[in-house]
Design brief:
By secondary structure, this protein is mostly helical. The protein contains 18 helices and four strands. It is globular.
């Protein structure tokens, strides 16, 4: 049953399987295990990035297409929700549907017969233009200030299913709209993750990998590579748009820096490399590690600076203001010790151990 749910793409490593189970259970029970506003925000951000990074890995890791416009589709989804729920009289979900259709149309245009560096540069230019438009069209997007909006009552933090907290073996939890929103995101991301896993392990996914390895050979075998690349681009854009919708629902706000910033695109690339390119599981592991480092590294550096107050030089190096420096150091170390990503490294070690154990 589990094998079918994972599309027969098992972790193939005991350590990897244990890590994936721990992370999945941690995210599933985050509202109980990690009470507090910041912890729940971090868990929700991890979930959104899992969907976003997995959708980008479908494009880069499995099809070999380099795109810098992924955050544009992410922003389209977020702005679709923001504009739909920002209606003054009666909020409508029509904006969400319109955003998804817009993302699909743009992804189809991107999939014209443009390849390699030319495709990457075109996507970068269009994404930059879209960011500028979102910043300037204040009547529709709120401009630099963005849009704050209300959500349906059952998703609002003030909504309570029960007046008293629910007592569980792990602790108490308030059954409010925030909790409902979190599990809506959790279930949606789980569905997106399993869908992408099914896609990459289907015959369609095998063709995508063949295109990644040798485009000309796949064409010679009779596959219309332009059609497969187009479908890959469209599917990747669709899942990124859905991830943007989930982010906007959680934050109840969206602005250019929230979903369209080029820094988010760099974060996606870093997470793909850390987790493992061409491995959907890498999206989960990489997102957890990166978002945790991004959210708590300053706190850890503050504690480390206080603990080493009497040692020359160290407090200056461990100041929270230098968290980006240490984040870069962690990234360099991860690439050095895990050149194929964490998932790739664990699978390589498991395969090597199996070979050595074989008679």
């Amino acid at each position: 049953m589990l094998s079918r749910l994972l599309s027969n793409d098992l972790p193939r490593s005991r350590w990897l399987a244990a890590l994936l189970i721990i992370l999945f259970l941690g995210l599933a029970f985050a509202p109980v295990l990690f009470p507090g506003v910041k912890a729940l925000n971090v868990a929700a951000k991890v979930l959104v990035f899992v969907a976003l990074v997995a959708s980008f890995d479908l494009l880069l890791g499995y099809t070999g297409i380099v795109s810098f416009a992924h955050t544009m589709f992410f922003g389209i989804g977020a702005y679709g929700v923001a504009m739909a729920l920002n209606a003054a009289d009666e909020p409508s979900w029509g904006g969400v549907v319109l955003g998804v259709l817009c993302a699909l149309l743009i992804s189809l245009v991107f999939s014209l017969r443009v390849k390699a560096i030319f495709f990457a540069m075109i996507t970068l230019a269009v994404a930059s233009a879209f960011l500028t438009l979102a910043s300037q069209l204040s009547d529709f997007t709120g401009g630099e200030d963005g849009l704050s909006f209300g959500v349906p009552e059952w998703l609002s933090p003030g909504f309570m299913l029960m007046e008293e907290p629910l007592v569980t073996p792990l602790g108490e939890v308030d059954l409010n709209g925030k909790l409902i929103t979190y599990y809506l995101i959790f279930l949606s991301v789980t569905a997106i993750f399993l869908t992408i896993l099914r896609i990459v392990n289907s015959p369609f996914g095998r063709v995508l990998q063949a295109i990644r390895e040798n485009d000309f050979r796949a064409e010679a075998l009779g596959y219309r590579t332009v059609v497969y690349r187009t479908l890959s681009n469209v599917l990747s854009a669709l899942f990124a748009t859905l991830a943007g919708c989930l982010l906007a629902l959680w934050l109840r706000y969206n602005g250019p820096d929230t979903s369209l910033s080029f820094e988010i695109m760099l974060d996606i690339l870093l997470i793909v490399v850390i987790g493992g390119m061409g491995t959907v599981y890498g999206a989960l592991i990489g997102s957890v590690l990166f978002v945790l480092a991004q959210s708590y590294l300053q706190d850890l550096l503050r504690l480390a600076g206080e603990a080493t107050a009497g040692i020359p030089m160290l407090p200056a190096l461990l100041t929270p203001d230098r968290w980006l420096l240490w984040l870069g150091v962690l990234f360099v170390l991860s690439v050095y010790y895990f050149p194929t990503g964490i998932v790739g490294k664990l699978r390589e070690r498991a395969a090597l151990g199996y070979i050595k154990a074989s008679p």
